[in-house]
């Protein structure tokens, strides 16, 4: 990190970093990208997928031919990606994914396109379509003014009573007569199935004794509403022990996020405001405004991008507007947190250590300094990807880490998937400001140790990632504490801009690959674009500031 008032320069052993970067990139490609060498936890799936248009056409044809469903509005069908994350998670945990994919996935997928067909009367039909072979994987009705979803949120006894009322006093024989045609269409002989639902119980469930994997068994589930069939879903059961484990882990993750991350991040935010005022003679309140506004814009674009997720849940336009307003307020708070972390962090380092972690554009040598920061950022990002791959392998061997799916954050559910990697910039700019630029210096004032301060801020940052569907939930914090310490080293060694570039490139590569795996040409090129975007930004800043007196950068 440069001394304040001195010429800007970055000294590094680039040859060593290049070698480490190449090794890191090879490890990343081997263990996180190529399916032939990736583990079940890390595997990137790249099957040939049908388009959303094909899924919509398939659903409409199915509805018209099998359900006499002709009252479809002119509104374009909503197609979203949905996943049975509990089933996938169980298979992943028990290392049964390969066996399942070979035996059952083609007929009973855990990932589907859900096509929502709106009716003029306010009702809707949801049809689940296999994402590779376009087979029908189930369907359900969403009836206007239905209480079904609300009933499913109640405890078991209340839920049972509510569902029986919603069904409309149907006998078991009536339910069976409505279900049998669908079982026959699916190629089942009712006599070979085991019926597990009894008279007086809601719904109807059959079990196929011949379709088993681990402790999971194929269930053919039917639900009813107002005396008619509401849904049909063939799905493999999830053992109660697994469900209880995930629920407990999720509760622990929520507590860690709220108390470990949320509370201490709030404290850092308050301290950032205080020290922005205390160090005002050594900092500038004009700086940081652009980055804070940029964060707000990216956050709101990301929220808008998730509108299909809200629509798939049947939310009204007014409810979605309410969510947008809520996230606007949330984004303003985090933009303010970024702003004061930039102002206060810069002021603290300059006042107490005479260091210049975040140089100004008007300083001599700023253009070459940014260019060099960008280059170092790419090298360190490749190193970090290699370290992450090794951490994943270690966690797999020790904690037997496993993961499941999360449809709510999938690019497949975004209005414009190509906007998704912009979140890499939000994370890199804001997190490096809050937890490195301001956090390390602020905590060091208390603990008197740079390493301990870096460790504490890395723990706070890591705990903000516990709600990712990776188990045990302590796995992600372990990974990110190590990654956070490396980001801390980068910041302390080179300054804020290098740590931002390293963080942005690191995330851009991961998010860019997720775009590239969507199997369409446009997203492939957009994924590549986002991976090279930090280089473009760094070079543009360099060119716009190349007129200033240049500073040599030893290699």
Describe this structure in words.
- This protein is α+β, with helices and mostly antiparallel strands and 555 residues long.
- The protein is 57% helix and 12% strand.
- The protein has helices at 14-33, 52-67, 85-93, 97-103, 148-152, 156-167, 172-185, 240-278, 289-305, 307-312, 317-353, 366-398, 423-447, 450-463, 475-494, 496-516, 521-544, and strands spanning 2-3, 78-83, 111-118, 124-130, 136-142, 194-195, 204-213, 216-225, 228-236, 355-356, 402-403, 470-471.
- The strands form 3 sheets. The chain has an 8-stranded antiparallel β-sheet, sandwiched between helices. Strands 1-10 form a two-stranded antiparallel ribbon.
- Helix 9 crosses helix 13 (423-447).
- The chain starts with a strand and ends in an 11-residue tail after the last helix.
- Residues 39-45 and 550-555 have low confidence and may be disordered.
What's the SSE blueprint?
Layout: E1 2-3, H1 14-33, H2 52-67, E2 78-83, H3 85-93, H4 97-103, E3 111-118, E4 124-130, E5 136-142, H5 148-152, H6 156-167, H7 172-185, E6 194-195, E7 204-213, E8 216-225, E9 228-236, H8 240-278, H9 289-305, H10 307-312, H11 317-353, E10 355-356, H12 366-398, E11 402-403, H13 423-447, H14 450-463, E12 470-471, H15 475-494, H16 496-516, H17 521-544
Antiparallel strand pairs: 1-10, 2-3, 3-4, 4-5, 5-9, 6-7, 7-8, 8-9, 11-12
Helix pairs in contact: 1-12, 8-11, 8-13, 8-14, 9-11, 9-13, 11-13, 12-15, 12-16, 12-17, 13-14, 13-15, 13-16, 14-15, 15-16, 16-17
């Amino acid at each position: 990190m440069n001394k304040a008032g001195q010429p800007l320069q970055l000294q590094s052993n680039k040859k060593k970093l290049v070698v480490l970067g190449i090794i890191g990139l090879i490890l990343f490609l081997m263990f996180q990208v190529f399916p032939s060498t990736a583990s079940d936890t890390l595997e990137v799936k790249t099957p040939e997928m049908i388009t959303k248009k094909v899924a919509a056409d398939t659903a409409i044809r199915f509805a018209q031919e099998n359900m006499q469903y002709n009252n479809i509005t002119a509104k374009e069908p909503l197609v979203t990606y949905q996943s049975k994350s509990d089933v996938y998670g169980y298979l992943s945990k028990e290392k049964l994914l390969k066996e399942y994919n070979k035996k059952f996935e083609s007929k009973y997928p855990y990932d589907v396109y859900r096509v929502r067909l709106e009716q003029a009367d306010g009702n809707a039909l949801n049809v689940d379509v296999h994402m590779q072979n376009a087979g029908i994987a189930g369907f359900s009705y969403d009836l206007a003014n239905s209480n079904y979803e609300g009933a499913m949120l109640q405890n078991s006894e209340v839920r049972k009573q509510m569902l029986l009322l919603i069904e409309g006093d149907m006998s078991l024989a009536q339910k069976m007569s409505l279900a049998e045609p669908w079982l026959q269409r699916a190629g089942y002989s009712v006599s070979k199935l085991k019926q597990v639902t009894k008279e007086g119980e809601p719904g109807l469930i059959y079990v196929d004794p011949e379709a088993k994997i681990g402790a999971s068994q194929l269930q053919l589930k039917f639900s009813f509403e107002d005396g008619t069939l509401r849904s049909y879903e063939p799905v493999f059961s999830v053992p109660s022990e697994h469900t209880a484990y995930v629920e407990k882990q999720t509760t622990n993750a929520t507590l860690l996020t709220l108390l470990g991350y949320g509370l201490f991040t709030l404290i850092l935010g308050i301290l950032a405001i205080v020290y922005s005022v205390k160090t005002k003679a050594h900092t500038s309140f004009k700086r940081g405004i652009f980055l804070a506004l940029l964060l707000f814009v990216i956050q709101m674009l990301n929220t808008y991008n998730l509108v299909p997720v809200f629509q798939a849940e049947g939310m009204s336009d007014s409810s979605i507007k309410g969510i947008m307003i809520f996230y606007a307020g949330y984004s303003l708070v985090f933009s303010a947190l970024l702003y004061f972390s930039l102002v206060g962090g810069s002021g603290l380092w300059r006042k107490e250590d005479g260091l210049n972690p975040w140089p100004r554009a008007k300083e001599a040598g700023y253009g070459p300094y940014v260019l060099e920061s960008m280059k170092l950022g790419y090298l360190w990002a490749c190193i970090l990807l290699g370290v992450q791959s090794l951490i994943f392998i270690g966690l797999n061997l020790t904690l037997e880490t496993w993961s499941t799916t999360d449809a709510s954050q999938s690019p497949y559910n975004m209005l414009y998937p190509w906007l998704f990697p912009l979140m890499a910039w939000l994370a890199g700019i804001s997190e490096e400001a809050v937890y490195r630029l301001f956090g390390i210096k602020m905590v060091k004032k208390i603990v008197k140790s740079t390493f301990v301060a870096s460790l504490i801020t890395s723990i706070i940052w890591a705990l903000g990632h516990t709600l990712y569907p990776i188990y045990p939930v302590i796995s992600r914090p372990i990974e990110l504490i190590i990654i956070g310490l490396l980001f801390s080293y980068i910041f302390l060694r080179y300054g804020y801009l290098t740590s931002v570039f390293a963080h942005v490139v690191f995330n851009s590569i991961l998010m860019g690959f997720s775009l590239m795996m969507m199997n369409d040409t446009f997203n492939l090129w957009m994924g590549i674009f986002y991976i090279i975007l930090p280089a473009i930004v760094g070079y543009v800043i360099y060119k716009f500031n190349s007129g200033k007196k240049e500073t040599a950068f030893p290699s």
